């Protein structure tokens, strides 16, 4: 069993190019599945639809969310496909497994006034204060994921074109425009904040933590919460991404452009923002139209 899991981990990261986050999640699901097999006195070669459904049924009985079950189905599909390719399974049961329908909730979105108030508030001129402003401005201006932001290097900023080069999910690269306020915040960081924190080990990282290493995702999230709480808002980095996409659509951007902006592989992932915009339009209509 351990050989199968180790080979599967290499397959996920090396051949399929899955992110570290996805690999960790799939391997955690795999450990649960292998533990279930051991309890049942079964081997990996015994995997079939009834066995997997039994494991998933226990997951549901333990109170797992739909999203957890859906991820486990995706993980076991990838695993059984790998085992079938390796000759461990005579047939792949994965295609016969169905995932629960996801209930898509509308994302949290700041309105334009809230975003303006949060981004225009004065900040302290300490290196951390300057970094916090740069982090929030860049997340809202570019709509990048917080992990993508933390992975940026100095060379990824193109001031001649006012863009940044982002390496997204699946190692897909995209170029994203950056607005003037975010560039100003970035200039302040590069002029005063980064030099104060930089050490020999900082390398080419654009954003740095307090000890000079590359800024990590947890600290970037804390930067966002700290900056926004000062204006009475409780929002996360992904809420800034949602807000950027929604405000672009509200401003007249087409869905395809927003898809490219966000780095979505499918337009289906971007369409949720049209629902957010439609809801806002209905609210405005009810408030403003005399015969609403």
UniProtKB/TrEMBL annotation:
The entry's keywords: Cell cycle, Cell division, Chromosome partition, Cytoplasm, DNA integration, DNA recombination, DNA-binding
Tyr recombinase domain mapped to chain residues: 105-286
Annotated catalytic residues: 145, 169, 238, 241, 264, 273
Domain of life assignment: Bacteria
One Pfam family named in its UniProt record: Phage_integrase
Protein's cellular compartments: Cytoplasm
CDD domains: INT_XerDC_C (cd00798)
Main subcellular localisation: cytoplasm
Keyword DNA-binding: yes
Limits of the Core-binding (CB) domain: 1-84
Oligomeric form and interacting partners: Forms a cyclic heterotetrameric complex composed of two molecules of XerC and two molecules of XerD.
HAMAP family: Recomb_XerC_XerD
Function: Site-specific tyrosine recombinase, which acts by catalyzing the cutting and rejoining of the recombining DNA molecules. The XerC-XerD complex is essential to convert dimers of the bacterial chromosome into monomers to permit their segregation at cell division. It also contributes to the segregational stability of plasmids.
The family this protein is said to belong to: Belongs to the 'phage' integrase family. XerC subfamily.
Protein name: Tyrosine recombinase XerC
């Amino acid at each position: 069993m351990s050989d199968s899991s180790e080979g599967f981990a290499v397959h996920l990261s090396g051949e399929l190019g899955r992110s570290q986050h996805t690999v960790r999640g799939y391997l955690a699901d795999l450990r649960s599945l292998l533990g279930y097999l051991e309890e049942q006195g079964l081997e990996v070669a015994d995997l079939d639809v009834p066995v997997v459904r039994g494991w998933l049924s226990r997951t549901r009985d333990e109170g797992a969310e739909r999203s957890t079950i859906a991820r486990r189905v995706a993980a076991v599909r990838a695993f059984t496909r790998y085992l079938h390719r390796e000759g461990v399974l005579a047939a792949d049961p994965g295609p016969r497994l169905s995932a629960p329908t996801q209930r898509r909730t509308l994302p949290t979105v700041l309105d334009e006034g809230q975003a303006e108030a949060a981004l225009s508030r004065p900040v302290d001129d300490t290196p951390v204060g300057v970094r916090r402003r740069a982090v929030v401005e860049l997340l809202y201006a570019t709509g990048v994921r917080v992990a993508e932001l933390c992975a940026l290097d100095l060379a990824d900023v193109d001031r001649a074109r006012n863009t940044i080069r982002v390496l997204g999910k699946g190692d897909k690269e995209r170029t994203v425009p950056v607005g003037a306020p975010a560039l100003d915040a970035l200039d302040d960081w590069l002029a005063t904040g980064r030099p104060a924190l930089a050490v020999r080990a900082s390398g080419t990282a654009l954003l740095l933590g307090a000890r000079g290493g590359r800024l990590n995702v947890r600290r970037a999230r804390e930067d966002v919460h700290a900056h926004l709480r000062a204006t009475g808002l409780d929002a996360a980095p992904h809420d800034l991404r949602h807000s950027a996409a929604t405000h672009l659509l509200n401003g007249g951007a087409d869905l395809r452009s927003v898809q490219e902006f966000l780095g979505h592989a499918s337009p289906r992932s971007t369409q949720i923002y049209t629902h957010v915009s439609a809801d806002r339009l209905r609210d405005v209509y009810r408030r403003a139209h005399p015969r609403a």
